[in-house]
Amino acid sequence: MGRKLYVGNFPYETGEAELQGLFARAGTVETVKVMRDMATGRARGFAFVEMSTEDEAQKAIAELNEYQLGGRSLSVNEARPKPAYAGGFGGGESRRRSEPRW
After folding, report:
1. Strand-pair category, 43-51 with 29-36
2. 14 with 36: CB under 8 angstroms?
3. What angle do CA 29, 41, 36 make, to 5 degrees?
4. Whole-angstrom Cα distance, residue 36 to residue 15?
5. C-alpha to C-alpha distance for 70 and 14, rounded to whole angstroms
6. What is the rounded distance in angstroms from the CA atom of residue 90 to the CA atom of residue 80?
7. Residue ranges of domains in the chain
8. 50 Cβ contact list (under 8 Å, min separation 6)
9. What's the N-to-C CA distance of the chain in angstroms?
10. How far apart are CA 46 and CA 41, in angstroms?
C-alpha cells in the first residue's frame, strides 16, 4: 500500500489546513493538495493527502473513510496512479470526413 491517499466528496469550502488538521489524527501528514478549478480557483471536492508511513495511511483510511465533514461523507482510499495517456479526446467512433461538423 502507498502512503498517498485520495480524499473525495468534501465540501468545496474545505481547504488544505482543515484537511491537514483532520488527517493529523492518524499521524504525520507530509503533504495536502486540494485540487482546484484552474479558471476559478474553487476547490473541486477532492484532494490528495500523503501520510508519513504506510501504517498511518492505513489508520487514516480506517478512521476517516465515511467521516462526516460539513454534512458530507468523505471517501478516503489509496490513491491510484494516473492512467497512461491513450491519445485522443474521448472514446467512441470517429466522425466520417464527409459528415458535417454541426
Report:
1. antiparallel
2. no
3. 45
4. 10
5. 9
6. 20
7. 4-78
8. 3, 4, 5, 29, 30, 31, 32
9. 48
10. 13
CATH fold for the domain made of 4-78: Alpha-Beta Plaits (3.30.70)
| 77 bridge partner residues | 6
Residue 43 host element (H or E): strand 43-51
The span from the CA of 99 to the CA of 47, in Å, is: 42
Q: How far apart are CA 35 and CA 13, in angstroms?
A: 12
Task: Read off the pTM.
Answer: 0.78
For 87, the grid coordinates are 491519445
Q: What's the CA gap between 34 and 44, in Å, rounded?
A: 8
Distance in angstroms (rounded) separating the CA atoms of residues 90 and 70 = 34
Q: What is the pLDDT of residues 3-59, one digit of tens each?
A: 999 999 999 999 999 999 999 999 999 999 999 999 999 999 999 999 999 999 999
